[in-house]
Amino acid sequence: MQFHYVKVWDGWVRMNHWLILLLMLVSFGTAKSQKMDWHMLSGYTILTLLIFRLLWGVFGSDSARFATFLAWPGAAWRQLAKLGRREPDTEVSHNPAGGWMVVLLLALLLTQATSGLFTYDQVFTRGPLARWVSEEWVDFASTLHVKNFYWLLAAIVAHVVAVGVYFVAKSHDLLGPMIHGEKKLPADIPPPRMASPAFGLALLALSAAIVWGITRMRIGL
Is the pTM here over 0.90, yes or no? Predict the structure, then answer.
């Protein structure tokens, strides 16, 4: 079988992936060191990237679109049942199981970022939306913000383990393409369509504007 290298991940997807990981570490470190201004700035940036990823999952490159990689749960189970079978990687996007992992990670990240908007530590740090909801909701969001972090951490560990298992069991390199963008695929598989970088920049600016508007609600503007 002949193979060729196909660009499967555009720069926006890769930037989003690694920046969110970096900012998660920043958020954890700044929370532990009580540098809450930096913690909140990191959270706002994560929320911006998440909104962008949702938009890019609808309007972006073919491989980044949810419609491309989301399948019925049964397809994910069938794909996992073939885990021990050595066969070429034929996916130009996430495989069915990986697609649901993406959904889980995005859901947990959004829960983490949005719950932070409503938190209040009863001392100095108040999320920009905390003043607009009841005290009971603030308490719930504050508790969720702490507990969800551990659920998110567990999902990240599961994701890393899955990447390693696919490499060992099937010789599928899922990490490399997320670094350089290209994947080795059978020669008869065409590359996915890549969206315009300028369009990505416009969606990122829109996402930043949405988050900026949320932050201004802290002071009632």
Answer: yes
CB burial of 182-209 (b: ≥16 within 10 Å; e: otherwise) equals ebebeeebebbebbeeeebeebbeebbe
d(C-alpha 206, C-alpha 197), whole Å: 14
For the segment 135-192, what is each residue's pLDDT rounded down to a tens digit? 999 999 999 999 999 999 999 999 999 999 999 998 999 999 999 999 999 999 999 9
Candidates 13, 6, 169, 154; CA nearest to 79 is 169
| Number of Cβ atoms within 10 Å of the Cβ of 52 | 23
Q: Which CATH architecture has domain 3-219?
A: Up-down Bundle (1.20)
Are 166 and 14 in contact, with CB atoms under 8 Å apart? no
Alpha-carbon gap, residue 150 to 207, rounded angstroms: 26
